[in-house]
Design a protein that fits this description.
Helix content is 37%, strand content 13%. With 1256 residues, the chain is an alpha+beta fold. The strands form 12 sheets. A 7-stranded mixed beta sheet has the order 8-14-15-16-13-10-11. The protein is globular.
Length: 1256
């Protein structure tokens, strides 16, 4: 045992005052720079606990803060509960502000007429002066007119954009004190080497005295200790005694020791900690825990890394470490933290999350899951202190001896990597140094990690913004596919538009603009690659294209079918210059892409998604607006929407009209299938079982209009998969009650219940149907039968003419104009993609069938010739005209419905497909190159200064995600009031696209221009009525703000017509139909369900006559227990709803079903466990019979006690038993194991026989 540990057990520890005297002994790496006063302040203001125990309990470091800016209003976008998060409700265990925390702010009016705080926070619009500044900064008179109509000022000659309208024509006055929705996160500041001070570390949990023991523990155990220290007030690392740590060391692996941390904490703290490992129902939840628990996976990684540095990369099928699981790969355990604002101090804080299994990425497979942390910035932190985030994340993070540094940011996510640094000393003697321990020698320095992925020397022609953005390649949600030899990673030049004329005298080969790279982002793979991938993944057919990462390249690989036999011997890929983002050799790409000794991680083809064709596609509000503004009649959309609503509702309500028993039986199977489709049940089940591979396997169908315009790297999908791994999305295996409405209905149906006679099934089916209708009333998304969507790829053979595309499906699922299903699309079609914000984002082209392209299925092949308009070449490819797309994995939608296509009038791309010059005037972009950076940073500067300098760029993409949404909302407002072709509208469309790509390009909005945009009364107005959901409208109706109105000179707006004439009418009609079919409760008792209890009572009465009351006594116990549980359930549900109602008083009365699903599930699971745990020790009933008798009486008691004849009580606590009773009563039930049942579905042949199969 180390000597210092012996000293600890003897209690010979320095006191706080003694620690303060050790200041001068600190390492010069921090003390020589900070000085005595700085460190004394830093230590003195740490919240110390009783130093009679230990002097170095978990230390909460300080952060410099200022007062928060004025609280911005809530965004009108629908919120995602999981992602947004609210103010931290925990007791303060976060970072405390110690400097300038009480500094007051004052409001001043600047020269632009904007109110701002003297701390430089985001401006608030004040009453604008008579003359306003345009978006490009020029003055404009508000009385200017265009075409004789007052629309606010703009000049077609100068291209200037107005930022206000006159008061007389403004339809809605914006609140003068209302700040913008989004927060501009400023770029981190630079510091010269002369005045540089290393940022102070943030210490979540640390104990020098216990470190010798903590270092012996697996990382998962150390994280759990830190998590409890972080989450429980007054609970420091010092609370763990050496005997506790010895106990954990003996348990060894994460799987045994990490859950045991909870038991130790429970022993040390009187408050119960969430853990059910000792629960009598633990076995019931073992499957769920196995799918969610990260500990065994973490142990597997530890074992592999001990013997094989590259063992977690995957694609090592012949290696001994893969004997029991040849397809295994690592990097699937996610350690995440939330960045919040402490409720008590108002300062930044970290909240450590429980580790979870999820998707994988290259970095985590190469270095291990435990070396990465993802920080998710909560909305509240962004709103209140977004201007201080950049400097905050420059500070190293210390968790129980491990040092992490931030290396990449994207929007509201910041990624940390573990370094080879360690913490020495304690109290005032705390310092971060380069470690010499054997454990730390396995770690890389931050600079080595950065050099390994994107070497500054080899990539000095990149801008620093691009250099930093390339770290997204290693974080992409991916699955290892196959390993390819470096000599088989070959070069294929891009096809460049002939109109591109490079300067012959240029010293450096000029790069063509993206729109002139006719194969931008798409390379080739031979059939050997696709066959090996098909063998590895659960795809239905061999893919035509895959979205992937390999080496420093990204984009699509398209199969080639014309290669000579010698090129099909080994898996080979051909990469284009437009795909290669990082160079790993000093050679030209055409000579060598990867060195012969390249790291194995760079040679693996990482798969993101595979080609698949979805039919039909759905129209979004942006696409509807575009089509309507380009001549498509409103009635075309109305008819499509009516058909889609009718189809979805009728699938859920077409039953119960026939007296034919055979027909009635088939109706329930068709209803079961409709529910499975409506809820996406099968995909959800597959995703829950294997969330890490769900995206690559094709289980996940991403909605491009779901407020997430750009999730190429899968961060949003990662959040969804982690959320769906939570308990809230798994069935309660004690009660047998599923989580979702659709799945609950399916469970009841396949047990024999029918909606005509089962109240709970009627109620839940009604909610499913009403929810389907609400999607039309809130999202305005409806299917177009004659449409599809798929990856867009360039013509591999150059056989398509300008304006031609080739669309072929791998199955006959494409309806033609006669209603026949085919596999090929022919004739005039419209193509588009998201975002679709300018008139030219929809293009009319011709779909053709070409024999040479017959093997290219489930993709949309477009011509590599320059696209044309009215016979004139536009000198750019087709994809660039549809929302600025390319071929690196973009999805395109194709519509061939004649009611849409024949009316569409193609706009002039020359007018709308070029970015207005004012856009660049409003953007900030750091054009510094890597070469410039290398020249500015001396080679002999300290490593800490280099890290600090690089983090300015690595964290440059830190951005409030709602900034993108705000410009989208402004675009919607301008479209509605000013018109779709108005210069303001076009300007905002291109601003939106520039900000959307900001994380890749390093572009952000100039603060002064952003403040000008915020002062525009039209853009910043309350949204048009059609845009607001009913809930948002009710909330905002309490203010005096009026809805934005349509300008009098403009024709009616398509969404007004659809929302208030078609959707309102059709949705109301559908809701009446639903209520008529399902609203009335069924008063008749289900005798099948009451039979087990009545039968038991009869048998007990007979036994009583025979002289024994034992069975009767046990029935009395059951009866008493059920009645008690009924009352407890009512009380708990009402209490939870009341608590939520008081917390959110502005929302009014809150029902239990309005609570978050996690909250509801916790309560219901607790009740079901209590219900099934008693009465214990029954002699007259075995466990299965006792379960059924209790369920039966719960059903009977509920009927007699409820005012409505029924509640959800018996189903919440005993659904499985009630379903068993029903299936037995119907006769001849078939017992099916859980594993089999969840992956059963109704065969398509049956659906075709008994009803038209749903195409959606």
């Amino acid at each position: 045992m180390p000597n210092d540990i012996v000293d600890h057990t003897d209690g010979l520890l320095p006191s706080r005052s003694a620690s303060a005297l050790s200041l001068c002994s600190q390492s010069t790496q921090y003390t020589d720079i900070y000085g005595e006063d700085d460190i004394t302040t830093m230590i003195a203001e740490v919240p110390w606990v009783d130093d009679s125990i230990y002097d170095d309990q978990d230390i909460t470091m300080t952060v410099d803060e200022t007062n928060a800016p004025i609280e911005p209003r809530e965004s009108k976008k629908r919120r995602r509960d999981y992602e947004d998060g609210n103010t931290d409700e925990r007791p303060n265990k976060c970072l405390n502000s110690t400097q300038e925390s009480d500094r007051s702010t004052k409001t001043v009016i600047d020269e632009a007429g904007l109110k701002r705080t003297d701390t430089g926070s985001t401006a608030v619009a004040a009453t604008p002066p008579t003359k306003t500044k345009s978006a490009c900064g020029t003055s404009a008179d508000t009385s200017a007119r265009c075409a004789g109509v007052t629309l606010g000022s703009f000049s077609t000659a100068s291209g200037s954009i107005s930022t206000s309208s006159s008061a007389s024509e403004s339809p809605a006055q914006i609140d003068e004190e209302e700040p913008p929705v989004a927060t501009l996160v400023p770029q981190a500041e630079s510091a010269s080497v002369e005045v540089f001070k290393p940022p102070k570390p943030i210490i979540i949990a640390h104990s020098r005295n216990l470190m010798a023991w903590l270092e012996r523990l697996p990382w998962g155990v150390r994280w759990e200790i830190s998590r409890y220290v972080n989450n429980i007030r007054g609970f420091g690392v010092d609370k763990f005694k050496i005997d506790d740590l010895k106990e954990l060391c003996k348990l060894g692996k994460n799987a045994a020791a990490a859950p045991h941390v909870t038991q130790i904490v429970e022993r040390l703290k009187p408050k119960k900690v969430d853990d059910s490992s000792d629960d009598e129902f633990a076995e019931a939840y073992s499957r769920e825990k196995s799918a969610r628990s990260p500990w065994e996976e973490l142990d597997r990684e530890d074992e592999v890394f001990c013997t094989h540095e590259h063992g977690a990369l995957g694609c090592n099928d012949d290696d001994a470490v893969y004997e029991d699981d040849p397809g295994w790969y690592g990097g699937k355990v996610h350690f995440t933290v939330k960045v919040v604002i402490s409720k008590e101090t108002g300062q930044f804080g970290f909240v450590l999350d429980h580790p979870a299994l999820g998707s994988s990425n290259r970095f985590m497979r190469r270095r291990g899951s435990q070396r990465f942390i993802r920080a998710r910035i909560q909305k509240d932190a962004l709103k209140r202190k977004g201007d201080q985030l950049s400097d905050f994340f420059r500070r190293p993070l210390v968790i129980n001896g491990a040092v992490f540094r931030a290396f990449f940011a994207k929007e509201q996510n910041v990624f940390y990597v573990r370094t080879n640094e360690c913490v020495q000393g304690h109290g005032q003697d705390l310092r971060i140094v380069q470690s010499q321990s054997s454990e730390q020698k396995k770690e890389w320095s931050l600079l080595r990690f950065l050099r390994w992925h994107n070497d500054l020397e080899l990539n000095n022609d990149q801008t620093m913004s691009k250099w930093a953005a390339r770290f997204a390649l290693g974080l992409s949600n991916s699955v290892p596919g196959i390993r390819i030899k470096t000599e088989n990673i070959r070069f294929e030049d891009d096809i460049i538009c002939p109109a591109f004329k490079p300067d012959p005298h240029a010293t450096k080969k000029p790069k063509p603009p993206s729109e002139m790279q006719m194969t931008d982002g798409c390379g080739f793979a031979n059939r050997a690659v696709m066959q090996l991938l098909y063998d590895r993944f659960p795809w239905f057919i061999q893919p035509t294209a895959v979205q992937c990462r390999i080496g420093g390249a990204k984009g699509l690989l398209l199969v080639r079918h014309d290669l000579p036999p010698e090129d099909e011997v080994e898996p080979t890929v051909w990469l284009r210059p437009s795909q290669v983002k990082i160079k790993y050799t000093p050679d030209e790409l055409k000579d060598r892409i990867l060195p012969a000794d390249a790291d194995p991680a760079l040679c693996i083809l990482d798969i993101l998604r595979t080609s698949r064709l979805r039919c039909p596609a759905k129209l979004s509000t942006e696409t509807i607006t575009n089509l309507a503004e380009n001549g498509v009649p409103f009635t075309s959309f109305a008819e499509l929407m009516r058909v889609d609503i009718d189809k979805r509702v009728s699938a859920l309500l077409d039953w119960g009209e026939s007296d034919d028993p055979s027909k009635r039986n088939s109706e329930m199977k068709l209803l079961w299938d409709a529910l499975a489709k409506e809820g996406g049940i099968m995909s959800a089940r597959l995703s829950r079982e294997d969330c890490g591979r769900a995206r690559a396997s094709g289980y996940v169908v991403e909605d491009q209009e779901d407020d997430e315009w750009d999730d190429e790297d899968g961060l949003t999908q990662l959040d969804k998969s982690l959320r769906e791994q939570s308990s809230a999305w798994w069935e309660d295996l004690v009660s047998g009650c599923p989580s979702s409405l659709e799945e609950t209905c399916m469970t009841l149906l396949d047990s024999g219940f029918r909606p005509e006679s089962c109240n709970v099934l009627r109620a839940k089916l009604r909610e499913v149907a009403r929810k389907a209708v609400r999607t039309f009333d809130t999202r305005y998304r409806f299917a177009v039968p004659m449409s599809c969507s798929a990856f867009i790829v360039p013509d591999p053979y150059g056989v398509l003419l300008p304006g031609e595309i080739h669309v072929k499906s791998s199955q006959r699922n494409l309806p033609d104009q006669q209603g026949r299903l085919t596999d090929i699309v022919k004739g005039d079609v419209l193509v588009t993609r998201h975002p679709c914000k300018v008139p030219s984002d929809v293009q009319k082209v011709r779909a053709v069938e070409h024999l040479k392209l017959s093997h290219y299925v489930d993709v949309i092949v477009v011509s590599t010739a320059s696209h044309e308009h009215e016979g004139k070449s536009l000198d750019r490819h087709l994809a660039s005209l549809t929302g600025g797309g390319d071929y690196d994995g973009d999805t395109m939608e194709v519509f061939w419905d004649p009611t849409i296509v024949k009316h569409f009038q193609s706009p002039d791309p020359e007018r709308f497909a070029k970015e207005p010059p004012d856009v660049q005037n409003c953007l900030l972009k750091n054009a510094e190159t890597v070469k410039d950076f290398n020249s500015s940073v001396s080679q002999d500067t300290t490593e800490y200064f280099k890290i600090y300098s690089l983090q300015k760029y690595l964290l440059g993409a830190l951005q409030d995600r709602s900034l993108v949404g705000q410009y989208s909302t402004w675009w919607e407002n301008s479209t509605y009031h000013n018109g779709y072709r108005h210069p303001d509208t076009i300007f905002l469309a291109y601003m939106f696209c520039a900000i959307l790509d900001g994380s890749k390009t390093g572009v952000t909005v100039r603060p002064d221009k952003y403040r000008e945009h915020c002062s525009n009364r039209i853009w910043q107005s309350r949204s048009p009525r059609w845009k607001e959901t009913l809930e948002a409208e009710e909330q905002l109706d309490t203010t005096n703000k009026k809805h934005l109105t349509r300008h009098a000179s403009l024709p009616p707006f398509v969404m007004d017509y659809l929302r208030f004439k078609i959707i309102k009418e059709k949705c109301s009609e559908a809701c009446v139909q639903i209520d008529k079919k399902l609203k009335t409760d069924v008063p008749t008792e289900d005798t099948d369900l009451s039979h087990p209890w009545k039968d038991a009572c009869e048998r007990a009465a007979q036994l009583t006559k025979l002289g024994t009351d034992h069975m009767q006594d046990e029935l009395s116990e059951i009866k008493k227990h059920v009645e008690h549980m009924y009352k407890e359930e009512r009380a708990q549900l009402n209490s939870a709803a009341a608590a939520a109602g008081s917390k959110h008083a502005q929302k009014g009365k809150v029902a239990f079903t309005d609570l978050r699903i996690e909250t509801r599930q916790d309560i219901l699971r607790s009740l079901s466990k209590k219900f099934h745990s008693k009465p214990a020790g029954l002699l007259c009933f075995d466990a299965p019979e006792a379960r059924r008798v209790k369920a039966s009486y719960a059903y009977i008691y509920d009927r007699t006690s409820s005012k409505k004849v029924w509640t959800r009580f018996p189903w919440n606590v005993a659904m499985r038993a009630l379903c068993e009773i029903k299936a037995d009563a119907i006769g001849f039930p078939k017992t099916v194991a859980y594993d089999f049942y969840h992956f059963m579905r109704i065969d398509k042949a049956y659906l075709r026989k008994h009803g038209e199969e749903s195409a959606w």
